[in-house]
Amino acid sequence: MALVVQKYGGSSVASAERIRRVAERIVETKRAGNDVVVVVSAMGDTTDELLDLAQQVCDTPPAREMDMLLTSGERISNSLVAMAIHGLGEEARSFTGSQAGVITTGAHGNAKIIDVTPGRVRDALDRGSIVLVAGFQGVSQDSKDVTTLGRGGSDTTAVALAAALKADVCEIYTDVDGIYTADPRIVSDAQRLDTVSFEEMLEMAACGAKVLMLRCVEYARRYNVPVHVRSSYTTKPGTMVSGSMEDIPVEEAILTGVAHDRSEAKVTVVGLPDVPGYAAKVFRAVAEAEINIDMVLQNISKVETGKTDITFTLPQTDLPAAVEKLTALQGEIGFSEILSDDSIGKVSLVGAGMKSHPGVTATFCEALAEAGINIDLISTSEIRISVLVDDADLDNAVRAIHNAFDLGGEEEAVVHAGTGR
Amino acid sequence: MALVVQKYGGSSVASAERIRRVAERIVETKRAGNDVVVVVSAMGDTTDELLDLAQQVCDTPPAREMDMLLTSGERISNSLVAMAIHGLGEEARSFTGSQAGVITTGAHGNAKIIDVTPGRVRDALDRGSIVLVAGFQGVSQDSKDVTTLGRGGSDTTAVALAAALKADVCEIYTDVDGIYTADPRIVSDAQRLDTVSFEEMLEMAACGAKVLMLRCVEYARRYNVPVHVRSSYTTKPGTMVSGSMEDIPVEEAILTGVAHDRSEAKVTVVGLPDVPGYAAKVFRAVAEAEINIDMVLQNISKVETGKTDITFTLPQTDLPAAVEKLTALQGEIGFSEILSDDSIGKVSLVGAGMKSHPGVTATFCEALAEAGINIDLISTSEIRISVLVDDADLDNAVRAIHNAFDLGGEEEAVVHAGTGR
């Protein structure tokens, strides 16, 4: 008998009818002889409706109360799914994150899981019950307050529970039927992947692939939890994310796919003294504003002036804070000007096959050149090439690279609109 | 500095605007120098919407999951009120029933409070915070499951917290501005009472007065918590429920008011052997079906047959179960027939003044006779007279008695539509 953890997204439980359909799938899994733990996101628009109410009563709602408010959404969907399962003749018990033992940091709105102590979940399973756990939430270790895990929190809840319960697999049911070689909405012949290693999936997620969030993949890799990405609406085989890239024989290593990201912005600090320590001052200032930077480029110093420029990318939402912080320190750091640009896009090629195939970078750049797309910045890792391009060129860039590396296939992709929770 | 517990009903927080208004009142109380604990019901129609969803996914939802579902309503309203208070510049922290230490029995849907251990509430108050507690809910002592307290549960939560925190007063904000001598929707000159003793309020609640539920008044009396009933929409003085009837000087004792109840039904067991033990069999059968009976009348035995009839009243909703249970035992109990009637109404006169004023029963019956209303059944206690009349005569009966005892006044009543939670 296997132990299966399943996670269903908000659009999969957006109505009573969809809830009944999800319940049928859960009961099928149970009747096939498995122990089943299920994590469900909040129903469809619930979260947006609650956010809207919060905005109506207070301009800057305190984060602690926001977490208390938003976590009710998962409470509702989980108990409804438990009821629907009951209606199909199986036992089901729903637990809040706190009841399921999801212990987190106290960072309301973006808490991290510290530990999972699923004693009550285990007991309920042992009594033959299907267990529902409210995703996206936990309880803070210090103050015992209700917390939320931020974007992708329900996926992370599922993977963390799977790790703590030593589950055989964590199934993530979502709007698409697997991981694709590119976003099928942009590339019409994008191909579903049967398997992806944790490292490749990490790079894909870090580069903007939205099916799985980075934190969830990191958690799965650390605890070696196989993650099976499947569609809630079909019975197609999906994509299995598991295993290390190191275990893939060199001759079988391939290119995983093309990821893109439209959520970044670019900052250039112009006229910085080209003396050791000044670049560090720039990045320390940004770090103090709690902003994560992604790509970095330092231009060659102009000999006549002894000055240089530094360009870096960061989340668009953090751009105003970064500019404000740097401007405040202009005198101390001694640069002449800050330029910023939020109409940029990043396109990345990921895959273990890159290590053993020379010329990938050349083909990559040639493909973009042929499509008439200018490259703004390049950054690479062992299994990834990322470049920054103009936002308007991004879709064309994705298609050009996908095509240049022959990643296309025949199978038609299944895509539904979804939420990011 | 006083400690004030306030409770606001669902209609008082039905919209963002009303929530902001409630927050203003709470902040005023805090700024007047009080510690404030607030219990808020679920917003307006939230409970009905959740019940509707439950019905759509499952015909007979399990009670445990129903409690998990419904308690999210109070979680939402409490965190929103906390946010609105924050927006007005005061600290506020919301707690679930479980976090606030409301320990209950495990009877899902109708749990009883066993104990309140408000350590976290106390700590938050000591740090200068206003505290919000989700009403209507607790956590079961044995299984640590989320429970609900049934009708009037939020009022009971407020009174129980007030008792555990040794609060100076528990203010219940509702749709009407106090306890009236009769329902103002029936009696136009019904008068607001300044004070009512616990015993009188208990009789009023037991006889159908809807402003406070019986359980809440019982709790308040047991722990001697003064309950101040006020309107959420006005600053009128309301009604103070406190003190024992015994403390009222005889010459000041008055008649409290006229209560009515439309929710009962009547059962007559015809042709029961007039031998000791047969009446007991009838009531044992009804008790085994978990049905509470109210009024009882046994007719004089007919000598020629050695048979008698027993009539009793019970909640209308329990009528089918009672008839089924008795019919199943017809052979054993040996009656000839069961008659039932659910178009009845009960009208009651309550007041400590009754003890010292002879002739109250006579005036009561004369008033109904003059109004041409037939009395079906009479039951009395030390401070109450109740009679059963035809449902169609009930409003007239209330008016006739209110008038006969000169209970009317000048002040105009404030009435809003409300919920019963």
From TrEMBL, chains A, B:
Keywords: Amino-acid biosynthesis, ATP-binding, Diaminopimelate biosynthesis, Kinase, Lysine biosynthesis, Nucleotide-binding, Repeat, Transferase. This is Aspartokinase. InterPro entries: AceGlu_kinase-like_sf, ACT-like_dom_sf, ACT_Aspartokinase, ACT_dom, AKii-LysC-BS, Asp/Glu/Uridylate_kinase, Asp_kin_monofn, Asp_kinase. Residues 267-343, 349-421 form the ACT domain. CDD domains: AAK_AKii-LysC-BS (cd04261), ACT_AK-LysC-DapG-like_2 (cd04923), ACT_AKii-LysC-BS-like_1 (cd04913). Its EC number is 2.7.2.4. It catalyses: L-aspartate + ATP = 4-phospho-L-aspartate + ADP. NCBIfam families: asp_kin_monofn (TIGR00656), asp_kinases (TIGR00657), PRK06635.1-1 (NF005153), PRK06635.1-2 (NF005154), PRK06635.1-4 (NF005155). GO terms for molecular function: kinase activity. The keyword Nucleus does not apply. Belongs to the aspartokinase family. Gene3D superfamilies: 3.30.70.260, Acetylglutamate kinase-like (3.40.1160.10). Pfam families: AA_kinase, ACT_9. Catalyzes the phosphorylation of the beta-carboxyl group of aspartic acid with ATP to yield 4-phospho-L-aspartate, which is involved in the branched biosynthetic pathway leading to the biosynthesis of amino acids lysine, threonine, isoleucine and methionine.
